[in-house]
Amino acid sequence: MEKKKAEVKTTSAGSSSMAEGSIPAFPVFQASMPNTPRLTSETYLSWAIKMEMYLKSQGLWPIVNEPPQVFSEEDLCRDQRALAIIIPSMDNSLLVH
């Protein structure tokens, strides 16, 4: 069975979107989100250990741990995926506006 190559379209604003029915350029794993404690000032150690393991399982740890100085489009996508996992796990009191 032949896989389709990912097609990325760039909009006039410079953002990209995947063509319908295409396969992403990076692997997407289906591991479920661990029972990660909510990040508060008291739960950092257990949160950090569990979050690191989850991000590693999703192939996102390198972008968090050692971000590149210049982001490729794939790096930016991975960074946004990691933030979409990390930010919702944080207690609202830790979010700075």
Biggest sheet, spatial arrangement of strands: 1-2
Main structural class: mainly alpha
What portion of residues is helical?
25-40%
Poorly predicted tracts of residues: 1-18
Protein name: DUF4219 domain-containing protein
Can you summarize this structure?
With 97 residues, this protein is mostly helical.
Topology, element by element:
Elements: E1 8-10, E2 16-18, H1 44-57, H2 61-65, H3 73-86
Antiparallel strand pairs: 1-2
Give a written overview of the molecule.
By secondary structure, the chain is mainly alpha-helical. The chain has a domain at 31-94. Helix content is 34%, strand content 6%. The protein has three helices and two strands, in the order E-E-H-H-H. A two-stranded antiparallel ribbon has the order 1-2. Strand 1 and strand 2 form a beta hairpin. The protein is globular and about 35 Å long.
List descriptors.
single chain, 97 residues, 3 helices, 6% strand, globular, disordered N terminus
